[in-house]
Amino acid sequence: MASTKLSRAAVERLQAEHYDLTTRGRIEVARKIEAARLLGDLSENGDYHAAKDEQGHMEGRVRQLEHLIENAEIIETADDGSVAAGTIVTIVYEGDTPDMAERYLVGHPEERTGDLDTMSPNSPLGAALLGATEGHWVEYQAPNGVLRVQVLKVEHA
Q1: Region label for 104, one of left (φ > 0), alpha (ψ between -120 and 50) or beta (otherwise)
Q2: Where is pLDDT greater, at 75 or 145?
Q3: What pTM was computed for the model?
Q4: Which of 1, 11, 40, 89 is the most core-located residue (most Cβ within 10 A)?
């Protein structure tokens, strides 16, 4: 089974979420289900069905977290100024002005923090950026042809 490359901070965040859902979350949902049962007929009880739906979504997330944590490969990013999983990169497309630059966190979607979008290191652009440093131009194959981007800044996440 393939591992999921995550930063230590992301794994710790996922472990904390898992703990919260399997303790407080399960207790809270069980209370909602019990309160809804006391309202009577379950076949037409909207509160009961909503609580059961919430329980199903929560248990799905618990399973997803268990899988991610179990298969996580913790990556340590070197602070050598090159784009790697776990770094934040600012890029600009050829022909665009610097004020049109875009910023991404390179990594798994679970790495996402704040408003910063993530870019998979396995995507065509993400793969092309790996190893690039500030000022370098990289090319990648997009659906509409070959595109060029310049790395403006690389930051440690």
Answers
A1: beta
A2: 145
A3: 0.74
A4: 89
